## 1
Amino acid sequence: MKNRLKVLRAERDWSQADLADRLEVSRQSVNAIEKGRYDPSLPLAFRIAEVFDLAIEDIFSRD
Amino acid sequence: MMTREKTKQADLWDTPGPWLGMLVGIGTPLLLFAYNRIGGIAAIVMLATIIAIAVAITWRFSGEHVVRVYGSRALMRYNTRFMLASLAYVAGMLIAMGIYNEGMPAGPLAYAVTLLPTLPTLAMIVVMACYLVEEQDEYLRHRASLSAIIGLGLVLVLGTTWGFLETFGLVPHIWAWWVLPVWAIGLGIGQALVSRRERVAEADHEGEKPS
């Protein structure tokens, strides 16, 4: 699954740690999701969408 | 939003894990030396000292920046609990060996003696289970599960292979309790593999802020 986390972070000038704090997960989690090494669960994907105030499909897409 | 302490960049040496690991690593041979050369009382005094140091280390190395190094509070608890279980194992093993060398009691008491190293070993398994239940971070839980499966794979491969070699008389018999150390080695290999992948990804992650 592809994602736009890095771009969305850059637009807000957030570090991975900043995003991790907002999601209440570890920075390793954000890194793994951002790099496409781990696909988040649906609840976490919804939380990510809420944090960016976007729809899930605006952040994640199929390969 | 969760706020975290950012004033101090902590590393692994700011956590209790490596210190407790060193304590177990250095303390075990010292305890054996004290027991064999000086006597049971000296070993008990040394054991009490080591436990006191372990408690002090656990108390000293705690806090939000430590959680940050580990990744989660559950992981911090897991590391501390596992090290304390390891200490209990060393203590139980030494006491059981001492009793065995002095003359193993018969009947139910013999079973009680064998429980001394067994219970802390079982505690390590419970500690792992507690971690998987308590971990709220799904990626860290996934990472731990993956490492545990790699450990299980190693146990199955080595156990099956060794078992057949033993059946045909090609290798000596080994005791069944070896499954846990072998599993732990596999767990360590799994964690190292996962960490290596993370470090490679980290290399791509230029600093904290996105450019």
## 2
Amino acid sequence: MHIPDGYLSPSTCAALYVGAAPFWYVAAKRTNRLLHSRLMPRISLFAAFSFVLMMFNIPLPGGTTGHATGIGIATVVLGPWASMLSISVALAIQAIIFGDGGITAIGANCFNIAILGSLATWGVYKLLTVSAAAGSPRRVFAAGLAGYVGLNVAALATAIEFGIQPSLFRDANGAPLYAPYPLHIAIPAMMIGHLTIAGLAEFFVASGLTAFIQRTDPTLLGNATTTEPQQTSTRRLWMVLGILLMLTPLGILAAGTAWGEWGASDFADPEARKQIAAASLNAPLPVHPPQGLAKLSSIWTAPVPDYAPVFLKSESFGYMMSGIFGVGLVIFASQIVAWIVRRART
Amino acid sequence: MSQFVPGSGFLARTASDLHAAARKTFYADEFAHTPGFLQSLDPRSKIVGLGAMVLAASSTRHPEALAAMLVFGLLLAIASRIPLKVLAARAWAGIFLLTFVLAGPAMFTTPGNPIIQLPFGIQITDHGLKTAALLILRVETAATFPALLILSTPWMHVLKALRVLRVPVALVVILALTCRYIVLLLQTAQDMFEARESRRIGILSTKQQRQMATSSVGVLFTKTLVLSEEVYLAMRARGYNGDVFLLQTFRMRPRDWAVAIAMPAGAFLPLLLK
């Protein structure tokens, strides 16, 4: 998953350095506030530990072996911010000293593995360990699953970065200049190995080490070294929501058609028919839409079909507006439910 | 269920991987101390010059420019008395396999005019061939220059010279500490696996092997925690209070300035080619 130099365009690498920078800044500030003078030895030693951990062959069911990255256990024990720093340092050393991963791609590798991986791991772990005691078996499973998800989120981000290269960077004749495969090839090619072998190795290391810590020093699972701040406002949640809304047009970049989301009219459109056939292993397509589909699809006509309000010309802006509208509706509906529940309680 | 066979199971394999990594770590500085062109330069000028070459190799759209850069890298290696065998093992071999696996199918799947017809209707297209060749050449060329930097410069000098790129002092110290303790933890892990292997009697099931691996990771983790506290106390004993300083002992001479200016200028010339 370590991207070497030359697979991503310089502008993609620069964008991912810029994307990683605020996370590094916040992580350094938060971690330093908690650890202060202990920061350097602690981060350095954990980075060295992550590096050595990647050398371990973990025996997996079926007789094969895999390597873990340490995202799972670093996040569970250190918290997401210190984990981001430790894994970033390990990745930088791997690139600079050992040539594993590119110099221009350090930002991309850190963004995918250290930042997205740690955040995803932390999210899953916190979700699954709500009110779980330090010695609870639930933590063992949660740490494993969190590591598995974190690693796969990192792999997915890497695949997306590879997959957008051919559509963005081509020479005058149309030949891809960097990673040559589009999203519909890059994503399955990357995810199959990670969802199976690499993900399992991460699962076993994170869960096994959590069980080991529970027996030897359970205080480490009480977040002794984490830097999770007390949530006093929902401002951050709104910020994240805002960023996600800004990113909604990313879906337009995906090639092909969303499998199984076809309308009855698509069966009459030659271009849509080609896309459906290509996404269905070229299985023969019926000439007319199936009767049931044609009948049921006419029951309800959405006011904003395909996330594209009729009054907007820009597809990207339409996606964003639809996102904002949808989020607004969900918030409105949940406020009504909350109000009803509060009234029922009182 | 796979069985543990003496000398070929995961214990032996992990010990062997750790040993290889430790060897690579211990002998990485070997060529940095031999006399040669790159060895005689200030590390900061090498970071600027060779870094510019990596950036240029990642940016150019011309295979000819990439080939010229690769030849320049080979000449630098020869002038620095770095054996090409060492450079190949370090920079090219592993990455070539990975890139070939990735780029190979692109020769057949990238749309374009067919230039070679193979059996079963498979054909290599002009765009496919160019895409694969460009990717392999780009990746190999870009990997050559960081390898030359590391092979011709002691690690600690490389990390210290990162200051020229405005990398914060604290990060440079963290990177240097990490490098140092990687060596120690690699040695510790290797000892641990050898100790386990020497006490192993009989055949282990996959589950037992996995339990042993995770328990070894756990022991190494505990040792890391203890070591972290010991390092911190040792630093405190030497007067450390959270602020770090770095002694600057490098000296730029005219030839260093020449390399720091000429190499980036030469590297970016190909980008101006139409």
